From TrEMBL:
Belongs to the PAL/histidase family. NCBIfam families: hutH, PRK09367.1. It comes from Pontibacillus yanchengensis. Its EC number is 4.3.1.3. This is Histidine ammonia-lyase. The gene is hutH.
Length: 508
């Protein structure tokens, strides 16, 4: 997505963070500050922890061990050391790190949860996280290792390590030891005190951050799918009557109605679409049912958006401190099940956009299903044209089907069966992101084929909207005059789709 600069600063309250504000911080590197009222809440909550330690009250995570060790009392002089041991031992993440933009979102969401005033941490911790965001220092956080309850322990431990000067960070496009960058910029490591290690790692911010990035990208992708499908309609002389408002109002789903309305808008003025009975009575489902299928995917994305907006402003650590420390309750807000289910639903919604796109690709290249040159080849037989592009699309959608298997239905007990049901929400969020990347490539393939088809039809007859899309995309991928290495075309167009937000209009 194209980066923009904002003169303003996002003020975090713990309660009002929107997905658009997350987008501004993560994609546009907008700076953040903490609302004064939230600072007061943090300080009150911290005073409660101080009182607990001083008075010797036994409270989980403050002066006890963790998980199965919750019955082990920790002496007052050891409570700070307990926190450092916690994050080092829990920093067991493996595999490739999260993208920097996800790491940035994790920090932002962690701050927003901590400043609600239920976690008992010092402002020094919040200030350190704020500095990292504003200085664009991003912890290197391995993607694998979270069960999604008790929250994202392993990923968030790698974040916590950085606050103390350990671990690794991204800075100016390279990876460094955290200490190197802290020394360079004069940032002092923090020393974790009672409860702070647990407050930092007990939460759902890794799965939620990845989920937010997924949503922000898939929202754009879903609009792009409509633009590309509109051009495919023209390439196949599709029947526009299928988008008549009465059909969709008769069913009543708002998202379906909206897709049909946008398809009509995109195809307005086109001389390539047809009406029923002119060439045929009805189209195949992959054309006729675009509003029904795409609309259902939009339903899943709307559901996901609602859950992400709630979770982005939620207190998800444990225990939580209420009434200035008079009430401290161990609960289960760290359990990622709401986000796990949302991510699994999102996976299906994205995968279906790719599934129906691949079927449209087949209709564009298969000479038994259209009157276009076989496989859109410039010289059928001598040249294969788009034949293997359809293979690639089929491979990607097949991979998506395996990744779309719900992660949330799996659970493996941990911590000697104390933590006997977990969400696997972070796995779901990660798989959703992979499905998203695969689906963008499928749509890139459809766009390549659709452009080739409308050239055969006479591109001058395109609608003004699809003509604009054609002109922009042709700057990325030229017309197919003879066979070439199409992998490069697919990847270039995929990158262009990733960076181009034509959610409604493309400038001519």
């Amino acid at each position: 997505m194209e980066k923009r600069r904002f003169d303003s600063m996002i003020t975090l309250t713990g309660h009002t963070l929107s997905l658009q504000e997350i987008k501004r911080v993560c994609y546009d590197n907008e700076r953040i500050e903490i609302a004064p009222a939230s600072i007061q809440k943090v300080e009150k909550s911290r005073n409660a922890v101080k009182s607990i330690v001083k008075n010797g009250r036994t409270i989980y995570g403050i002066n006890t061990g963790f998980g199965k060790f919750s019955d082990v009392k920790i002496d007052e002089q050891d409570v700070n050391e307990l926190q450092q041991h916690l994050i080092r031992s829990h920093a067991c993440g493996v595999g490739e790190p999260f993208p920097k933009i996800v790491s940035r979102a994790i920090m932002l969401l962690r701050i927003n949860a901590l400043i609600k005033g239920y976690s008992g941490i010092r402002m020094a911790i919040v200030e350190q996280l704020t500095t990292l965001i504003n200085e664009q220092i991003h912890p290197v956080i391995p993607q694998q290792g979270s069960l999604g309850a008790s929250g994202d322990l392993a990923p968030l431990s790698h974040l916590a390590l950085v606050l103390t000067g350990e671990g690794k960070v991204y800075y100016k496009e390279a990876v460094y030891a955290t200490k190197t960058i802290f020394d360079l910029l004069g940032i002092k490591p923090v020393e974790l005190k009672a409860k702070e290690g647990l407050a930092l790692i007990n939460g759902t911010q890794a799965m939620t951050a990845q989920g937010v990035i997924n949503y922000l990208e898939v929202e754009t992708l879903a609009y792009q799918a409509e633009w590309i499908a509109a051009m495919t309609m023209e390439g196949l002389n599709g029947i526009i009557d299928a988008f008549h408002p009465a059909i969709h109002e008769a069913r009543g789903y708002p998202q379906q109605i909206d897709v049909a309305r946008r398809m009509n808008h995109l195809l307005q003025g086109s001389k390539l679409v047809t009406h029923q009975g002119e060439m045929r009575v009805q189209d195949a489902y992959s054309l006729r049912c675009i509003p029904q299928v795409h609309g259902a995917s939009w339903q899943s994305f709307d559901y996901v958006k609602e859950k992400l907006e709630i979770e982005a402003n939620a207190a998800t650590d444990n225990p939580l401190i209420f009434e200035d420390g008079q009430t401290i309750i161990s609960g289960g807000n760290f359990h990622g099940q709401p986000i796990a289910l949302a991510m699994d639903f999102m996976k299906i919604g994205i995968a279906e956009l790719a599934n129906i796109s691949e079927r449209r690709v087949e209709r564009l290249v298969n000479p038994q299903l259209n009157d276009l040159p076989p496989f859109l080849s410039a010289k059928p037989g001598l040249q294969s044209g788009a034949m293997i592009m359809q293979y690639t699309a089929a491979s990607l959608v097949s991979e998506n089907k395996t990744l779309a298997h719900p992660a949330s239905v799996d659970s493996i007990p941990s911590s000697a069966n104390q933590e006997d049901h977990v969400s696997m929400g972070t796995i779901g969020a990660r798989h959703a992101y992979t499905i998203l990347q695969n689906s963008r490539r499928v749509l890139a393939i459809e766009l390549i084929c659709a452009m080739q088809a409308v050239e055969h039809r006479e591109k001058i007859k395109l609608s003004s909207s699809t003509s604009s899309l054609y002109n922009k995309a042709r700057q990325i991928v030229p017309s197919i005059k003879e066979d070439r290495v199409f992998s490069e075309d697919i990847e270039r167009l995929t990158d262009w789709l990733r960076e181009t937000d034509f959610s409604w209009k493309i400038s001519p």
